[in-house]
Amino acid sequence: MMDEKLQKLSDWIKESDNIVFFGGAGVSTESGIPDFRSVDGLYNQEYKYPPETIISHSFYHKNPKEFYRFYKNRMIFANAKPNDAHLALAKLEAMGKLRAVITQNIDGLHQMAGSREVLELHGSVHRNYCTHCGKFFDLTYVENCEDVPHCDDCGGIVKPDVVLYEEGLDQTILSKAIRYISKADILIIGGTSLVVYPAAGLIDYYRGNKLVLINKDSTSRDSQANLVINGNIGEVLGEIVLGREGK
Ligand code: ZN
After folding, report:
1. Global pTM value
2. First to last CA, the chain
């Protein structure tokens, strides 16, 4: 027997061909990628500044070496694999039910799972460009460079295509995300506490009556949702979409 709330979501999904998913860091934690903003004991011994300071535009320019030390240690997880949340969303898209995945994550796991329409609000660790000549570099290149990666053609610094603090979002991607959300039949939001910009703002563009929040903890927007499921996003979508055994 499926839980009543899961059954409701399952019924909604069956009837819809216009689902949009919006996800945050919690979607990737089940793949072993911690939220880089989380500061643990180990962190305090290793870094002198809070993550929000190190991952900022001005810090990157002032101290690229320390920026890259943090970035490589805390933000790149090259061996991570998609979990049931990524796989379920890719399956829903393949079934013609899901229109787009909008994500705040930069790990590329949705694409690895097979999703095609992925709007990466904060960019991707898989794209890196020389700041001087614009040459493209993949993640392996950045990982293999000691300290700060430099272009093998012109020697310029290579910067990840990741939106840093103090930097604006890509307006084209943002507009596209707003378009998908405003036209969505079902909007599923998962793995985000909805306090970080732009998550909090985007949700207000939804006009339907099937707003679903899936999160381990309660969020400030729970009262706005039509269905709140407290649980792991991978377990919830895994049970509904992939037919995994429920707990
Ligand atoms: Zn270059």
Report:
1. 0.94
2. 10
